[in-house]
Design brief:
α2 packs across α4 and α3 packs across α4. This protein has one domain: Arc Repressor Mutant, subunit A. The protein is elongated. The chain is α+β, with helices and mostly antiparallel strands. The protein has a 3-stranded antiparallel β-sheet with strand order 1-3-2. The chain has 7 helices and 3 strands. The chain starts with a helix and ends with a helix. This is HTH arsR-type domain-containing protein. GO terms for molecular function: DNA binding; DNA-binding transcription factor activity. Keywords: DNA-binding, Transcription, Transcription regulation. InterPro entries: ArsR-like_HTH (IPR011991), HTH_ArsR_DNA-bd_dom (IPR001845), Metal_resp_trans_reg (IPR051011), WH-like_DNA-bd_sf (IPR036388), WH_DNA-bd_sf (IPR036390).
């Protein structure tokens, strides 16, 4: 992940609803959640939720899958790994490969 992608991810997470959505989707795991269920759980209106989901998707932190007429959303663990790797890029004396096991442990394989 480069600096601009990291800034997009941080910007996406810097708003309370989007941070709540991302954390909720991490909790939901492999099953993900529909946009309606996310909105109901967080008490957010549909049009507001759609905007926030689009911002998170553009930032690479969530992904979606169409299921008939609805869309299911998931935390994108590769996006999370990329953000964590960016943050730890210069750790260990500039040897980020030493931090990779920590990153893999923090961002589950779901």
């Amino acid at each position: 992940m480069d600096k601009n992608n990291a800034l997009d991810a941080f910007a996406a997470l810097s708003q309370v609803t989007r941070l709540d959505v991302f954390r909720l989707l991490i909790t939901a795991g492999e099953g993900g959640m529909s946009a309606g269920d996310i909105g109901d759980t967080l008490g957010v209106r549909q049009n507001t939720m759609s905007t926030n989901l689009a911002i998170l998707a553009r930032s690479g932190l969530i992904r979606s899958k169409r299921e008939g007429r609805s869309i299911r959303y998931f935390a994108d663990m590769e996006g999370l790994r990329g953000l964590l790797a960016f943050l730890m890029e210069d750790c260990c004396g500039g040897r980020p490969e030493l931090c990779q096991p920590i990153i893999n442990e923090l961002a589950c394989p779901c």
